[in-house]
Amino acid sequence: MVASTRIYEGEYAFRHCVVASTWAFEAQGPGSIPGGGAISIARRSRWRSNIYCPPIKMAEPDPPVRLTYMSANLETVVVLAAGEGTRMKSATPKVLHEVAGRSLVGHVLNAVESLKPKQVRVVVGAGREAVESHLSQISPKVTTVFQERRGGTGHATQLALADTNISGTILILAGDTPMLTGESLQQLLDLHHAGGFTATVLTAEHPDPTGYGRIVRGDDGSLLRIVEERDADDFEKAIYEVNSGVYAFDAQKLTKAIGKLSNNNSQGELYLTDVLEILRNEGGAIAAALIEDFVEILGVNDRVQLAEAAALLRDRINEGFMRAGVTIVDPTTTWIDATTKIDSDVTIFPGSSILGGTTIASGAIIGPRTVLQSCTVLTGAKIIESNCIEATIGKSANVGPYSYLRKDTVLGADSKAGAFVEMKNAKVGDGSKVPHLSYVGDATIGEGTNIGAATVFVNYDGVEKHHTTIGDHVRVGSDSMLVAPISIGDGAYTAAGSVITEDVPAGAMGVARAKQRNVIGWVMRKRSGTQSAKSAEAAESAARHSDEKKG
């Protein structure tokens, strides 16, 4: 390794050196990059630079010259997603399992999207129809390639390259690495282009390298080969630097070399890793980019690793939101999908899950123990211990505790869905309140209306759903049954305990309850010997005794 380290602004060159970062190069002196490109040293990255060969000595510019390197356009991305995932023990193809609101392959494609490749080819195999259907929904422009027989990563790449005329740079990566970021992939590509390399592989030092291909370097630190664990000897298994499964290639040189692969290994498969040695033997310049955070390369092969990936993504997502001004009281119990949008000055209390494409505006308070799925929460809304699905919660609205807002529920500004309230396909106007213990289904409620406790919107006749329309400033009495389809006009009232089956005009009082009739002595006759009867008899005896004393 280079003995002395300096960070320069300017041009650098390395003779087939092993470099990790295009942003913060470590070197003994400046030089010129093969191919004539230049690198902008704009900031230090978290990537570690590893240069194991001396750079070309040149006079240091005074003052340093800042140049900008613009990476060549990425022509092709190949995502390997044909694995059966037998260790998942699931009927669902491995790459379709979800973490943080996206499928595994969805996370990979999201990272790739920021690179703006001209084409993306996904190699599919197990569960072909399901995977292709999913891809058509999340990334309809991708091209799928079917690998009927599992012949290894090299074979999958051969299929992806077949019958195509791919040029420029090709990026190859696995479909089960949800932690990869577009930023890291871009840095890999920038390094690849800046150094004029034939191939560049992304590597990391893993504290437990079991299961990963090992990076074998020469005495000068250069990349010699990648050895799969099942083919590694004891010395190679002791290496902590591992292959990420992410590669940047010169597409034309890869196309020529891929046909030279051999399946002379323990698995009888074609390994893409063997291409690196072929290219090296043909005089190609091979680089290994070592990233500092090994978490990015973690793959998912079973349910344990799926849970680990979910927790890691949770931490990454939560940290990002907290640094952007969101208060998350307990990040370890707060789960936020990667697809959510949360403004600053939102407070999220413990035990909450923000899922799907939920958006939350500034000043909102969420939780504790609240689930929001595909919801829109406007400024200053407060949602406590509730479950909301595809609902819109208006400005300064209050929800909960223990409310359930279902699809197509819309709460207006300053409205309320209080304790133990369920709503479905309901529009609640500004300032209206459903304070507690009510069901509101298929309804439109105007502004400033109050729905009394234990009110039920009876929307289902056993065959069809029917709508209830309630006007502005209406007062619905407690324990009312509103049997749809009906309309209650502006300013109207309903009496407590009413079963409303007909429209109530504006300003009217709707009363629909039978006259009370008391059947004297019924309990003593029909329930003789019960505790109720004994209590009633005692009360009757006490009343007689009181009357006798008065008389």
Structural class: alpha/beta
Oligomer: single chain
How large is the radius of gyration?
34 Å
Helix content: 10-25%
Q: Roughly how many Å apart are the termini? A: 114 Å
Tally of helical runs: 10
What is the CATH superfamily label of the largest domain? Spore Coat Polysaccharide Biosynthesis Protein SpsA, Chain A
Please explain how this structure is put together.
By secondary structure, the protein is an alpha/beta fold. The protein folds into 3 domains: 74-297, Spore Coat Polysaccharide Biosynthesis Protein SpsA, Chain A, CATH 3.90.550; 325-510, Hexapeptide repeat proteins (UDP N-Acetylglucosamine Acyltransferase, domain 1, 3 Solenoid); 517-544, no CATH class. It has 10 helices and 39 strands. Strand 2 (98-99) and strand 3 (102-103) form a beta hairpin. Mean pLDDT is 86; it is low at 1-71.
Observed structural traits:
551 residues, alpha/beta, Spore Coat Polysaccharide Biosynthesis Protein SpsA, Chain A, UDP N-Acetylglucosamine Acyltransferase, domain 1, 3 domains, 14-stranded parallel β-sheet, seven-stranded mixed β-sheet, 20% helix, elongated, disordered N terminus
Furnish the topology, listing elements before pairings.
Elements: E1 74-81, E2 98-99, E3 102-103, H1 104-113, E4 119-124, H2 128-138, E5 143-146, H3 153-161, E6 169-174, H4 182-195, E7 199-205, E8 214-217, E9 223-227, H5 234-237, E10 241-250, H6 251-258, H7 274-281, E11 286-291, H8 303-323, E12 327-328, E13 335-336, E14 341-342, E15 347-348, E16 353-355, E17 359-360, E18 365-366, E19 371-373, E20 376-377, E21 382-383, E22 387-389, E23 392-393, E24 398-399, E25 404-405, E26 410-411, E27 416-419, E28 422-428, E29 433-436, E30 439-445, E31 450-451, E32 456-458, E33 468-470, E34 475-476, E35 481-483, E36 486-488, E37 493-494, E38 499-500, E39 509-510, H9 522-526, H10 531-550
Parallel strand pairs: 1-4, 1-6, 4-5, 7-11, 12-15, 13-16, 14-17, 15-18, 16-19, 17-20, 18-21, 19-22, 20-23, 21-24, 22-25, 23-26, 24-27, 25-28, 26-28, 27-29, 28-30, 30-33, 31-34, 32-35, 33-36, 34-37, 35-38, 37-39
Antiparallel strand pairs: 2-3, 6-10, 7-10, 8-9
